[in-house]
């Protein structure tokens, strides 16, 4: 069984390619989504409150990690609710 992609090299070159879907958010994008400043989001990443990946000089944040943070904050708020 071959692990190579099916089709000839010519067919693979001509295969339609769809748009690349973004998989990461920047600190600025997450800050805008959450209504925070970029500095606060950076500090949340550094402290580990918000998961992130250091990519060169930038931080990248998966959409699922933003969802985790929001869910965590919502759970904390519900626990504190009288």
TrEMBL record:
GO terms for molecular function: DNA binding. Transmembrane segments: none annotated. Residues 24-72 form the Helix-turn-helix domain. It comes from the Bacteria. NCBIfam families: excise. This is DNA binding domain-containing protein, excisionase family. It comes from Ornithinimicrobium cerasi.
């Amino acid at each position: 069984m071959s692990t190579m992609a099916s089709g000839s090299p010519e067919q693979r070159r001509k295969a339609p390619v769809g748009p690349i879907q973004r998989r990461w958010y920047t600190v600025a994008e997450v800050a805008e989504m959450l209504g925070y400043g970029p500095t606060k989001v950076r500090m949340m990443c550094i402290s580990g409150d918000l998961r992130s990946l250091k990519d060169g000089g930038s931080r990248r944040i998966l959409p699922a990690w933003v969802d985790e943070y929001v869910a965590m904050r919502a759970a904390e708020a519900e626990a504190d609710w009288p």
